[in-house]
Specification:
This protein has about 425 residues and is of the alpha/beta class. It is built from 13 helices and 20 strands. Bound molecules: guanosine-5'-diphosphate, 6-O-phosphoryl inosine monophosphate and magnesium ion.
């Protein structure tokens, strides 16, 4: 059986914290897509850790963490992260496994990401510059190198061939930066990577499933950043939705049980692209300040706005969400009035569907107003301690989406999570 935890908005919904919390009920936690563009924050022994490549189950003893074939892997980031995780006493030989089909992010992929973004000027995606787009392009273009290739004696020849190809593209972009230092650390990190557990991911996970083990698939990014269903072209380059679990791990849909969608009680986005409910005013700044909305990977300020039920409803539909976790409810504690987007107005017409060209059509959000709760909720431990105004807010969302919020997160800490269903 496989349950899935994924983001329903534009990323940073708090997936890391939620996966870390639920991991205790599973035997395996597996990442199925994305790469070091992800930044998943969790607190271990009151210390903040941001994971980019390693699944968020890694701090729970006895759990197997798998980096699946759908992920793109930067060996340099991985190595750094392994060192951090090991400093907490985690034995990665026992707990971390990497699928041999996982594609490698090369230094030139990072350079190409940067060059492509620079060339786009004002139309830039706002990529994390981690080389994600170019690596997935080489995967679908059938050029990429995979973790399993490292064990092949011709690896260096293949690397040089691909690097040459990339160099021609970089020359076209007139990209002049010297990346020799990146290459040096890349090759050092490859030696480190070779010593980790490299497995045939699909057989590995099926062995677990056959033995009755419980698998939790951890999404990165968010549904609105999905390559097919997100706000294209302002998206990432992988399938962030539940369908990505099957191709990103090699499991069939019949294994998938719950799809747990994570949403903030409001909404954020980092990088370019449409965001109908964005608040480009003091209210937005308040959300950013109270919610500490700065990118976990790039440190960029996140754009902030009200919850968007049109987009959430779409995400629930595409993913087949069965349960919702609402995070950062405590961030709304200080607001006396809250807005919830229930429809878009496009060319004078109301709709509750996400349009094909969100960036060009510029939907105007239609809001319904709710009273805020104006109380500190971050210390609450059970549903009875939550204010009625919060329950009214949650009930409305439940009804609109037809999917229930099962948990409310009221702080960044591991235990700040209240079961409400
Ligand atoms: P992810 O990418 O979905 O894992 O989310 P990030 O880690 O990028 O961003 C979520 C941020 O919100 C992190 O700094 C978390 O520590 C923090 N966080 C998570 N849940 C809560 C919550 O319920 N309340 C507050 N105040 N912070 C939270
Ligand atoms: P987590 O897993 C928020 C955004 C980037 C950019 C777009 C494309 O922490 O939720 P990319 O580097 O993937 O080519 O960038 O996607 N983006 C994220 N935004 N959270 C993330 O991950 C993101 N990963 C990528 O800001 O707009
Ligand atoms: Mg994040």
């Amino acid at each position: 059986m496989v349950d899935v935890i994924l983001g329903l908005q534009w990323g940073d919904e708090g997936k890391g914290k939620i996966v870390d919390f639920f991991a205790k009920d599973y035997d395996v936690v597996a990442r199925f897509q994305g790469g070091p563009n992800a930044g998943h924050t969790l607190y271990v022994e009151d210390k903040k850790v941001v994971l980019h490549q390693i699944p968020s189950g890694v701090f729970r003893p006895g759990i197997i963490n798998l980096i699946g074939n759908g992920v793109v892997l930067d060996p340099v980031t991985l190595r750094r992260e392994c060192e951090t995780v090991a400093s907490f006493g985690v034995d990665l030989k026992k707990s971390l496994f990497i699928a041999e089909r996982t594609h490698l992010i090369l230094p030139t992929h990072r350079a190409l990401d940067k060059a492509a973004e620079l060339s786009k000027g004002t139309q830039k995606i706002g990529s994390t510059l981690k080389g994600i787009g170019p690596t997935y392009m080489d995967k679908t273009g059938r050029n990429g190198l995979r973790v399993g290739d490292l064990l092949d004696k011709n690896f260096t020849t293949s690397y040089i061939k691909l690097r040459l190809k990339h160099q021609r593209l970089l020359d076209n972009y007139n990209f002049q930066e010297d990346i020799s230092a990146w290459e040096e650390e890349f090759f050092e990190a490859l030696e480190f990577l070779k010593e980790l557990n490299i497995v045939n991911g699909e057989y590995f996970i099926h062995e677990q499933l056959r033995a009755g083990k419980r698998v939790l698939a951890e999404g990165a990014q968010g549904s609105m950043l999905d390559i097919d269903f997100g706000t294209f072209p302002y998206v990432t380059s992988s399938s962030t939705v539940s369908a990505g679990v099957c191709s990103g791990l090699g499991v069939s849909p019949q294994y998938i049980r719950d799809v747990i969608g994570v949403t903030k009680a409001y909404c954020t986005r980092v990088g370019g692209g449409p965001f109908p409910t964005e608040l480009e005013n003091e209210m937005g700044e308040e959300l950013r300040r109270i919610g500490n909305e700065f990118g976990a990977t790039t440190g960029r300020p996140r754009r902030c706005g009200w919850i968007d039920l049109v987009a959430l409803n779409f995400a629930c539909m595409i993913n087949g969400v069965t349960k919702i976790v609402m995070t950062k409810a405590d961030v709304l504690d200080a607001f006396s009035e809250l807005q919830v987007c229930t429809a878009y107005k496009i060319n004078g017409k109301e709709t509750n569907q996400v349009p094909f060209q969100m960036d060009k059509l510029k939907p105007e959000p239609q809001y319904r107003s709710f009273a805020g709760w104006n109380t500190n909720t971050s210390g609450a431990k059970k549903i009875e301690e939550l204010p009625q105004t919060m329950k009214t807010y949650v009930d409305f969302i439940n009804q609109y989406l037809g999917v229930q919020i099962h948990y409310i997160s009221n702080g960044p800490g591991r235990e700040q999570l209240i079961q409400v269903q």
